[in-house]
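Think of the structure tokens as a kind of shorthand, similar to the way a musician reads notation: each symbol stands for something richer, in this case the local conformation of the backbone. In the example below we present two proteins back to back. Begin with the first one, reading the sequence and then the tokens, and try to describe in your own words what changes along the chain.
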Amino acid sequence: MFPNTETAPLLPKEINIFKNYMNEQSDPIRREVFNYSLVSYIISNITPFPINIEFYYNNRLENDNFEDFINFLALSYLKYKLYTDSNNIKKVYFKTEDLFYSNYFIKTFFDYKKPVNDRDISEIVWIYPKESVRAFISESFFNKNYGNYFYNEMTLIRLIMIMAGFSKYEISSLDDCPSMELKQINYPTLILANIGLYEKELLKIQEGIDGISVFLDLSDKEEKEHIFSTDRELLKRTILKVINETENLEYTMKDFL
């Protein structure tokens, strides 16, 4: 599928720092959450890249070849970026694991669903970084919110579903608890509280060969920035949407204690 492409000794610096960040995370949620400093560095080094228009429209977003499509976009970005950096590159060499990180990089930072036509060459379209990423950088900078975090809605939904499962386990354990006050804590309130503990790193999520686990960590911590609860009302509404739709429940905002 990719003629004359073998595998590259050097990733572009924006993908390399992204790869290093990913490798540092054992938590599948924090792997999808990026602080202002990291996103700012990436967006200052990222560049739009061209794609053959016929290939794009013949292959985009089809379920049976979606990963091949992303592979092609990732390789196209790598080759274009390395070519523009060196001007004389003939072949590009990549490790398989580097292509994995490059694929995820494309999915995270590029709006591959909205190609832009080239003004002069009808045979190509350009893939640009997501507007949401640029908006995050602009809003954080002008509001001086340098502790902000960038993530997409699906990351928050996954966190809520993980904490919902953990909260069900806690609720089932309350049958043996003598405190009536604890027994009166309801489901959405417990999910909200657990997300707060997760932000403080008192609750941790880890992904291993046996799946995802949630565990308590009471070691000393520095004060942490809010990630998901900066807009508490939005977080509450998202919790309700997730649990009501996935579990056929009817909780409302009045149910939060």
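Once you have a description of the first chain, move to the second and do the same.
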Amino acid sequence: MDTALKNVRVVGSPVVLVGLVVMAVAVLMIADPFVTQMLTIALLYGFYVMSWDVLSGTTEEINFGHPFWLLAGAFTAGWLNLEFEYSAWITVPAGALVAMLLGLLAGGLTLRLRGPYFALVTLALAVTLYKLSFIWDEFFGGEEGISGVDFITESARGDYYVVLALLAVSYLLLHQYYRSRIGLILMGIKANDDITRASGHNTTFYRIMTFGIAMFFAGIAGALTAHVQGSVNSELAAGVVGTLIVLYAMIGSRGTLAGPLIAGCLFYVLDQNLRVLEEWRTIILLGSIMLAIYLFPDGVVREIQDRIRRRRLRHSPRSEAALTPEEPGSVATASSPR
């Protein structure tokens, strides 16, 4: 439990916020709108992975169907924009609410059970929505999806700043959620569900509520994707997207919030830059993922935390005193029998 609480405190490190400020300034030096849009989608990928980490990082419940809620938010935003000409300031909150309601429904049906049921149901939901997008083409647009969705602003740079601002606000809100009493209860559930339940906490309620909150932010990310790309298609619910989200969260250190966010952004940029080596792109990307998992089994952030903690212990006066050999007449001699 102590380790979990330390992770919660580290999540609040200003490193993430400093990084977001740097990204806000750096984009001013980029003149190519294509590069700006690529960075915007990279932020969205960080959004995807961060929203996944809200439940799956604080408990042992693994969500393999995260793209289902991303696509639910995206299709809701796209449909409202095309049918009723609502702007992104209406469609994005609407997509988030739809994703949250679906999350509460799915969580209420599955999170009461123990075992792999939740993971299997979420995976089945993602596959079902992926197939339905081809069957109900009048709503989902079939294989090509729906296009003609309005952009958030008039420029790629404007879209970038809107996504960056919403990502920063979402991170701060989730960070406070992690540090709250509910966040501590979730860490207790992850450490030992039975003990947390025995202490009087309704662990099922907290799981369902947290899943709904996580899917609210997933809906925001999905709806933003629709407006940034100007279209929505079923590729967002493909199995490879869900798998990559889980892997990126693992590499970034599941349960730290900041780590999955950074990993999602960086690995998307890596993937896009590998397009120059299209034949080797997938092999290099997967190889990089496997190498990162092999070198950092607990994730990069926790590896950094452990090294900092060991260095502090090594240089602390208490640890030096403990490592100093005892001399004759010291505490050991004084404590000898009279």
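Compare your description with these statements about the second chain. The beta strands are 146-147, 231-232.
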